[in-house]
Amino acid sequence: MIKNFRAVILGAPGSGKGTISSRIVRKFEMKHISSGDLLRHNIQLKTPLGLSAQHFMNKGQLVPDEVMIGLILKEIDKCKSGSWLLDGFPRTKKQAEILFDKAPVDSALNLIVPFDVIVDRISKRWIHLPSGRVYNVDFNAPKVPGIDDVTGEKLVQRDDDTPTAVMKRLDVYSKTLGPVIEFYKVKGILEEFTGKTSDEIWPMVFKYLSSRMTPISQDVKI
Ligand code: G5P
Ligand code: MG
């Protein structure tokens, strides 16, 4: 068993990275660091980083490597001792290489979900912006429509979940993630999980992670 387990979770937009990550951190002592949530937090606070990132995100493009690398390494520095799970980073080979130099990764979890399933899901996504909690009107609807279960605050739809931005994000993903997957494959730490639903994928992820880390509870249910 590895004491400080460091993992990245990869997959297309809408493949369920956020959904599976939130299940992982409920079952394993890991800090969830989501690049998209960090960016949206900066946009909400209107920081210079947020304002420049917003321009790329709303068009479905990647935020420049230098910006992302600085942002993520700062977060990793905050939890030097301990396990973490990076969601949405790396997205380019350069990001993967620099991350590996600074903080070697133990596992890269790649979620493989068909694109037609993804497009339908994203149109029904609602999020709680401050926490990054994700809902879907078909899959995990909030108890009260439009309201976060935990805080009672309003849910919103993401600015980059418009049909045009989603198609662009899927296109960018297809063109850029191959070298990242290859990078982890060559390192011998790539683990792939294929399915049409997060409920299908989650037990496989749980089983794999349980072989590397001790779970908080052995029960796969969340
Ligand atoms: P993000 O925020 O990282 P994406 O595009 O990678 O965004 P996204 O959209 O957040 O990924 P996800 O986390 O993989 O998707 O998926 P999710 O939110 O868990 O699930 C999607 C929806 O499906 C939800 O409504 C969920 O409830 C539902 N769902 C889950 N499972 C099921 C199921 O089994 N069935 C059904 N019916 N529904 C389900 O990045 C955003 C932008 O930030 C920038 C880029 O501009 C990017 O486009 N960015 C970066 N740029 C450069 N480098 C980086 N490293 C960057 N990171 C972010
Ligand atoms: Mg996400």
What does this structure look like?
The protein has 222 residues and is an alpha/beta fold. It has a domain of 130 residues: P-loop containing nucleotide triphosphate hydrolases (Rossmann fold), CATH 3.40.50. It is built from eight helices and seven strands. The strands form two sheets. Strands 2-3-1-4-7 form a five-stranded parallel β-sheet, sandwiched between helices. The chain has a two-stranded antiparallel sheet with strand order 5-6. Strand 5 and strand 6 form a beta hairpin. Helix 1 packs across helix 8. It is globular, with a radius of gyration of 17 Å. The two termini are 22 Å apart. The structure holds P1-(5'-adenosyl)-P5-(5'-guanosyl) pentaphosphate and magnesium ion. The site of magnesium ion has 4 residues, from helix 1. Monomer.
Explain the layout of strands and helices.
Elements lengths: L5 E6 L5 H11 L3 E4 H10 L3 H11 L6 H14 L5 E4 L5 H10 L4 E6 L2 H9 L1 E4 L4 E4 L26 H25 L2 E5 L3 H13 L12
Parallel strand pairs: 1-3, 1-4, 2-3, 4-7
Antiparallel strand pairs: 5-6
This protein binds P1-(5'-adenosyl)-P5-(5'-guanosyl) pentaphosphate and magnesium ion.
Magnesium ion binds next to helix 1.
Tell me the name of the CATH homologous superfamily of the domain at 6-114 and 190-210. Answer: P-loop containing nucleotide triphosphate hydrolases
Distance between the termini: 22 Å
How many distinct helices? Answer: 8
Helix content: 40-55%
Computed CA radius of gyration, to the nearest angstrom: 17 Å
Number of separate strands: 7
Helices and strands, in order, run as: EHEHHHEHEHEEHEH
Report the major sheet: 5 strands, parallel
Mean pLDDT: 94
Shape: globular
Strand content: 5-15%
